[in-house]
Specification:
Blueprint: H1 3-6, E1 14-19, H2 20-23, E2 24-28, E3 46-50, E4 53-58, E5 63-71, E6 80-89, E7 93-98, H3 104-112, H4 130-134, E8 137-141, H5 143-156, H6 158-172, E9 179-180, H7 192-195, E10 201-205, E11 210-211, E12 216-217, E13 221-224, E14 232-235, E15 241-244, E16 253-255, E17 263-266, E18 269-272, H8 279-286, H9 289-298, H10 309-313, E19 316-317, H11 322-351, H12 363-366
Parallel strand pairs: 3-6, 10-17
Antiparallel strand pairs: 1-8, 2-7, 3-4, 5-6, 5-7, 9-19, 10-13, 11-12, 14-17, 15-16, 15-18
Helix pairs in contact: 5-6, 6-11
Length: about 400
Amino acid sequence: MSQFIEMFGDNKQIEKQGVLADFCALKAGKSVKSGDISDSYEEGLYPCYGGNGLRGYVSSYSHDGIYNIIGRQGALCGNVNIVNGKFYATEHAVVVTPKEQIAPYWLYFALSGMNLNQYARGVAQPGLAVNQLERLPFAIPSIDLQQRFVTIAEQADKSGFDGLKSQFIEMFKDKKTNGKIADLVDTDIKSVKKSFNKDDLIEYIDISSVNAKSRTLNETTQYIVSSAPSRAQQCVQNGDILVSTVRPINRNVAVVDRDLTNLVASTGFCVLRPKDGYREYLLAIVTSDKYTDKMCDIASGGLYPAVNNSDVLSYDIFIPDKDFLHRVTQIYQQADKSGFDGLKSQFIEMFGDNKQIEKQGVLADFCALKAGKSVKSGDISDSYEEGL
């Protein structure tokens, strides 16, 4: 098994084992003419992925959501990309769709750690067959451990990871608002009553399903529609942004990261279905300090202060043009990938197995913790002066 799995300790951490096809559906995309691929982005075009990663941009898309893509043809075959949004996959790109609940970013690391290029066949034009990839040994830990890794990854790399993202908000801070969140989303969210029969099975997402640190979903709960909670009303889909309207200070925001047709969210969320290209920008906005402060100011209620969907949708924002937005989105996604990649390699090298651990115990075994001394309030100055 890959070094990545070793990060979780020993085989006791592995919940299921088998081959890759047991856990994920792998399917190559469809061909596209070279003449239909643009080297540069223009409004109305979508990223096109081939055997060596991003090939360019085309006028249609084959997928929409968060997916891992394996390049299967060319010198760099076996490369893994994680894509969020609308994109087109060619016949030289294999789109990986989990058959069960698997955290997308965990899956990205797992696939990357398998060094898939080593299985390439051919000299002049190296390649990987889908049925060959499907038979590779694979194992997954519990979803809790997967999410724990993603959380650790974000926290461990926070200074660089979040710092890069915050630059984008800084880029817009001096821009005058010229629109609202509602201008960047599709507000036609279908209701359960109009989409399901009373005997249908749904996957319910409530506030406990949200991992606020990784911006992903944890476990969902299955219900028959007739016995589902009364708040199970909003039909959501892969790529939607769920913004909790209760206790905005907690920043409970997540991107729907699974491609299921029976996902239903609580009415405690404002569902943002981003228009083309705006997903990362909107996610940055609704997790920003400025947005959070505003929602906290207007929230009402005692123990459970809350805002309305209209408060979220009417939040004033600057709407950048498509070309500038696209460049921002590319940098944003690369910041995610670079931060995770750097962390992954350091983690594997330092803690690949328990043999690297020299000592174990409690914090007090290795560090002395001592509280400081009291000081009178009158002796504390609010501003800095020389000599303080």
